[in-house]
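User: Continuing from earlier, I have the next pair ready.

Assistant: Great, send them over.

User: Here they are, in order.

Assistant: Folding the first of the pair now:
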Amino acid sequence: MGIQWRDSLAIGVEAIDNQHKELLLRFDGLLNACEEGRGKDEMKRLLSFLEEYVQTHFRDEEALQRLHRFPGYKEHCVQHADFEARIKALRSEIDAEGISMHHVIQTNNLLLKWLLNHISKVDKELGAYIKPGSP
């Protein structure tokens, strides 16, 4: 199975593209761990990583949007906040109930749908808006 970076996901801003590559690499690690029966352990690591990394990534993306006066800034921020809330809710549920296969599947679905949709549509709009050669 697995998931890999494709050049078609690039938005044309190296720093953001590299962050997206890292997110997909980590998600791929979860998918591979699930295939090997280690999904629960890997998910704990992935959630810890995501709680910190997406804050940095979203802050960087939003700063870039402000810098270029991206017209979709507010909606983009709403989507980022929604994703962060989903990760926090998942973490709270796991802390309260313990981790189960349901949580692993839920995380896989969330990441697959949200990340790929967000990068391939919303972030691509940002990349198309920013002029070539921008920071």
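And the other member of the pair:
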Amino acid sequence: MDGRAWSVLFVLCGAIFMEGIDVAMLNVALPSIRAELGLSTGMLSGVVSAYVLGYGGFVLVGGRAADLLGRRRMFLFWLTVFLVFSGLGGLATEGWMLLLARFVTGVAAAFMAPAGLSLVTTNFPDGPLRTRALGVYAGTAAGGFSLGLVAGGLLAAIDWRWVFFAPVLLSAVILAVAIPVLKDQAPQARRAGGFDLPGAFTLTAAMLLLAYGVVRLEHGSAGLGATLGVFAAGLVMLAAFVVIERRSANPLVRLGILRSGPLVRANLGGLLFLGSFAGFQFLITLYLQELRGWSPLQTGLAMLVVGVDTILAPTLTTWLVNRFGNGRVLIGGTTAAVLAYALFLPVAPDWTYAAMLPTMLLLGVAFSLGYGPFTMAATEGVDEPEHGLASGLLYSSMQFGTALGISAVTAAVAVSGSGLAAIRGALVVPVAAALLAAVITAFGLVRRGQPAFANGGA
């Protein structure tokens, strides 16, 4: 790659890294935020859920908007919105201000992330060069999730507001570099009828309701009727969206794209893969901080080893994908995740860090072999004008998987007793989710003798 190509990749990797650390840093800073602002448990949970609602509700619209309105334009505009509202979050003095800031930040990420991924796939030609670029991109994204815990612990030790101000500084640098170096392919020609507004409204309503339903699962049996009502309303809106898309001359989502087996498997696998990690991250935070009395910084440092994926993904993973194909590499990644969570099942109240280290190392390997190939598989075989849509589908699945993973382990903790017994019981959830992701990947690995997620030399 030449200098300009590396500059483009730096911008796009910086944005996805910022998104990852933004989420992880906030999780570590929540106790400090509660202490200063006096937030209730419900309000504190809402600060996390607001981002999920904004992201989950708009990510598919964001993906299609990138295809129709221009990826560069969407990326730059929503990066600016991300910068502004992250700063407003740092200035918050009331809970509602944090809720608003996190919701709009989630919406900004929902438009920015699929635009960024589709810019990677359209700026680098198909083949080893794109594989290498996607490997670097995915490794940076995964590294943001793991390194964000450490960064959050360091910043929260100074002042929790720096958890919001740090992304502002990073966004400003990325924006300054992005404006001159990013180039966009011409947006897809818009047919008569323009942007599919009825489809956009019904899809956004459906995604918001379904995301809210997933968040409500944390409450368990309390308010179960209301939770089921939210899911039912979301499914009704989703059915209305399908009807509108079938009749629209210029659909927001071409339903035929869902006939792609690799795309569907990548979305299901990505949902389960990210969900298992989010659930495990939540449980290990409870174990280390509430049962063992570790500080947020110590907790973040314990997870630092997972950040090895930042090194492995752009080096080892890209070579493996070119040599063996996405499918076989994904089998390795999902299997490593299953082993990592299974090794943590017998966790004891006095475990040394040496006993936890194999799980952390395996998670780093799992992320390096899983995140990138899932990203590559999402656009494999999809026409270039629909890369934004395919990227939006993947990020939607991953975001819902993250929310579902946290909600599932929260519910499992509630029914598994208390203390260490509750954590041990809930650890079955990430093991089962990762195992199901491995099964789905293996099921699609061979189709008529060819890898389902084929790429490179597979």
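Worth noting for the second one:
Residues 90 and 161 are 5 Å apart (CA to CA). Residues 186-193, 448-458 have pLDDT under 50 and may be disordered.
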